[in-house]
Amino acid sequence: MAIRVLLVDDQPLLRTGFRMILEAEQDLAVVGEAGDGLQALDQVRALQPDVVLMDIRMPRMDGVEATRQITGPGRDGPAKVLVLTTFDLDEYVVEALRAGASGFLLKDAPAHELVQAIRVVAAGEAMLAPSITRRLLDKYATHLPSGDEPVPNTLHTLTDREVEVLKLVARGLSNAEIAADLFVSETTVKTHVGHVLTKLGLRDRVQAAVYAYESGLVRPGAQQ
């Protein structure tokens, strides 16, 4: 079955461009469009998309609040949110990731990256581009706790190896890269990542990365 995509952006020209790119793919189907967050909520309820391509800055309701209402706690719907941001890395992307977005993509990304990102998110994975994600969290670290706060009790539920894996996830490493770094198999890494998400009550790697920064486990600008 085709992946059902909802386009949310206040610029009709951009929506048209995205539609043309996506409809050229046999496994993607654009089921609707919305010009702001409120329209997006209505469209999600009516159309039940698999992936919502969400702009951040929009009138009436921005993409952060719309993401929160689509994917927040207690929401069991199928929709995953892929946030669109500008090249200079919009500070609100951090809030969107906290709100439940499965990742983000630059608006000027090549067409093949847009298509691949939608497929990745639809499959239940996180769109976590290592270099961009790290820069984003470091740049907007002032929006995150300082790291002087007490370590959350939930962090103590992790084993030492799971803490290592979480740190590497926060640095944006893939499973293969983590496996090479820790000298274990990629399957073992996947198991550790799954345990981390389950124990911390997180949905995906993006939320795990944000959690690592918020908890003080990883400090902005640090290499470990």
Beta-strand content estimate = 5-15%
Rg, Cα atoms, Å: 17 Å
Derived from helix and strand composition plus strand pairing, the structural class reads alpha/beta
Number of separate structural domains: 2
Number of helices: 10
Helix-strand topology string: EHEHEHEHEHHHHHH
- Average predicted local confidence, pLDDT: 83
Strand order of the largest sheet: 2-1-3-4-5
Distance between the termini: 42 Å
Query: Can you count the beta strands?
Result: 5
Given as residue ranges, the uncertain stretches (5+ residues, pLDDT < 50) are none
Largest sheet: 5 strands, parallel
Shape descriptor reads globular
Helix content: 40-55%
Describe the structure.
This protein is an alpha/beta fold. It folds into 2 domains: 3-138; 155-215. It is built from 10 helices and 5 strands, in the order βαβαβαβαβαααααα. The protein has a 5-stranded parallel beta sheet, sandwiched between helices. It starts with a strand and ends in a 10-residue tail after the last helix. The relative contact order is 0.11. The model has no long low-confidence stretch (mean pLDDT 83).
Summary, kept brief:
With 224 residues, the protein is an alpha/beta fold. It has ten helices and five strands; from the N terminus they run E-H-E-H-E-H-E-H-E-H-H-H-H-H-H. The protein has a five-stranded parallel β-sheet with strand order 2-1-3-4-5, with helices on both faces.
